[in-house]
């Protein structure tokens, strides 16, 4: 394990052991100004870190905190934003069924999916005019 990965994991573990809400943990560890992005500022190094065992363990810590923190408690810690996503009816129905099977809400399921690493090859490119 590299020194940088060890340090990132140590900071994440110390915060996790303080039992923060999941939003605080995400912000401090995985957010734009969190320890992970400070340690791995460029996309290539971040991508390599996201393939590590340490990153997977950090994701497990986050999942455990999400189980313990009610959404209403976490929501009070940081302003929330709403996004609207256009998707086919069949995909919406599949997400509803998946949420039902996991005994969770669509919101929690979608947040779980958004927290996952996405392979660049699986994301269609858009023209710059369409981004925004």
The N- to C-terminal Cα distance equals: 38 Å
Largest sheet: none
Instruction: Please identify the structural class as seen in this structure.
Output: mainly alpha
Q: Measured on Cα atoms, how large is the radius of gyration?
A: 16 Å
How confident is the prediction overall: mean pLDDT? 89
| Assembly context of the chains | single chain
Unreliable stretches: none
* Number of discrete helical segments: 8
What fraction, in percent, of the residue positions are helical?
55-70%
Q: What general outline do the C-alpha atoms trace? A: globular
User: Could you tell me the number of beta strands?
Assistant: 0
Sequence of secondary-structure elements:
HHHHHHHH
Strand content: under 5%
What is the total domain count? 2
Explain this structure:
This protein is an all-alpha fold and 132 residues long. It has two domains: 1-78, no CATH class; 82-132. The protein has eight helices and no strands. The protein has helices at residues 3-16, 22-30, 35-39, 43-50, 53-68, 71-75, 89-101, 106-114. Helix 1 (3-16) runs parallel beside helix 5. It is globular. The mean pLDDT is 89.
Could you give a short description of this structure?
By secondary structure, the protein is an all-alpha fold.
Task: Provide the descriptors you would attach to this structure in a database record.
132 residues, 8 helices
List the helices and strands and how they pair.
Layout: H1 3-16, H2 22-30, H3 35-39, H4 43-50, H5 53-68, H6 71-75, H7 89-101, H8 106-114
């Amino acid at each position: 394990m590299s020194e940088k990965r060890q340090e990132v994991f140590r900071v994440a573990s110390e915060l996790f052991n303080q039992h923060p809400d999941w939003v605080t943990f995400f912000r401090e560890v995985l957010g734009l100004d969190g320890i992970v992005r400070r340690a791995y500022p460029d996309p290539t190094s971040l991508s390599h870190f996201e393939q590590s065992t340490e990153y997977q363990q950090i994701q497990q810590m986050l999942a455990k905190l999400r189980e313990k923190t009610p959404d209403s408690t976490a929501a009070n810690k940081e302003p929330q934003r709403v996004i609207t996503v256009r998707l086919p009816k069949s995909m919406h129905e599949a997400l509803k069924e998946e949420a039902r099977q996991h005994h969770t809400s669509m919101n929690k399921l979608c947040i779980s999916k958004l927290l996952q690493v996405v392979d660049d090859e699986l994301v269609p490119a858009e023209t710059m005019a369409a981004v925004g």
